[in-house]
Design a protein that fits this description.
The chain is an alpha/beta fold. The chain is 32% helix and 19% strand. The two termini are 12 Å apart.
Length: 349
Amino acid sequence: MRENDSHVGRRALLRSTGAGLGALAVTGCLGEGTGGSGSNGSGGSTDVVMKTASETTAAYAMSQGIAAVVNENADEVRVDARPSEGTNVNVGELDRGEIQIAYIQNWTANKLREKEAPFENLSFAPNQVFHLYDLGWFLCTANEGWETVTDIGGDSRVSPTPRGSGTAEMLEHALGYVTEDYRRISIDYGAQASAMNEGRLDVGAGTFVNFSVEPGWLQEMKGTVDLRLLDFPDDAVGELRDDPALLITDVDTSAFDGYAYAPETLRSPSLAYNFVVRNDLDYDAVYALLSTMYEHREALGENHALLKNLADVEFWLQNAYEGIPFHPAAADFYEEQGAWSDEFTRGKE
């Protein structure tokens, strides 16, 4: 455990004051272009920009809930939650110091760990902070009679999530085991329903949050068109499971209704989404973020139902990325909560 006197004193202060006394709400464009550690707001707080995904996603709504709770209850850090074009874009903005905290998923994490393009020359070391959720992804269509991705043809207009997202790369990679012969287009999650209804989109992307919850934009899709869930053929599933870059989860679809077609078991390329920060982000800001969220975890759940998972500190460390260390402040926080494990790595000071 870290024994630096100033940090021990800060943690004691957080415990004694309830992690702050109601900071002002975030306004304007805090943290824009501030560099690695975030800008200093009034009263010595650290302003951090947090990015997740596009405005129509549960992730963005969850980030707004996190920002609301932290900004109301912490003096040491203020969070500006903004929408994003995708996880790959998030890493680029972290690299340029335009944001300080962002969520990625295991596909992007693997590229970071292996220093693969476009992340081979980053100016910072990514550090993990906490787990947000898991998503089981699939491709879907309103085209009558389609049941698997083998129905995709050369003229099919396919949007495997918007370009720029790590999810798109993963789904394109998975789809490549079956076909690469299609017209790749890019449509935002919330625009897929109208695009299918107007005949501009043959195949889009859907997801089950934590394999059990349908996001609002997916519910809109199945309420707008006769939506059909596309499975992978049996002869491709074995290869998908053998691919170390992919995680295939069997999803029981019996709990989901309203679909024109759904296989009994959907083989879903899945992703675990965790927040990462720059390694040079201020120690006290990271500690205040986590401790405030944990102390007010009930309020997080009231802001968004999916944030109720954070009631259990073990969930914060679920599906941690191998080979990517935790920020030192996060490591100290989890150690104090009794949740730290020797399998995790602490980032450099």
